[in-house]
Automatic annotation (TrEMBL):
Pfam family name, one: CTP_transf_like
Annotated residues for binding of substrate: S9, K41, T73, R87
A molecular function GO annotation: ATP binding
Identification of the protein by name: Phosphopantetheine adenylyltransferase
Keyword Kinase: no
UniProt entry tagged with the keyword Magnesium: yes
Pathway: Cofactor biosynthesis; coenzyme A biosynthesis; CoA from (R)-pantothenate: step 4/5
Amino acid sequence: MAVAVYPGSFDPITLGHLDIIERGSRLFAQVIVAVLANPSKVPLFPVAQRVQQIQGATAHLANVRVDSFDGLTVAYAQRCQAQIILRGLRVLSDFEYELQMAHTNRSLSPQIETLFLTTTTEYSFLSSSLVKEIARFGGNVDHLVPPSLIAEIRHAFPVHCQ
């Protein structure tokens, strides 16, 4: 069985991400959840904290490893000797961007395939940005993120009474 890299910013990891990781862990010998250190984004949580969050959320999956990287995803996949880049698709608008990235990655490294998994319907609307927006305004995100992250998200967005 192949090794898959599931790259992303995961800021924070959501139940949609976890759904893709769990399903990927049934398909591949190993899934490497690769947290991208993207210098063009200002993250809520530092990379090291996101790695720890994902490790906690995936502790029940023996064949999942969490790491961080910067640079090109295909270069990272090559270093890990992965054959697959795993990507999740929520809605049709994701497809155009993801297809462009898959073609680009294939042009850079033809031996690495990109595999798309569609999210489970209940998570098709879910994104890290949405979680942060809800939390920023004091909304409940408990049903959107792994239980181990709830306290960290609440701490990052303290609700102030007026």
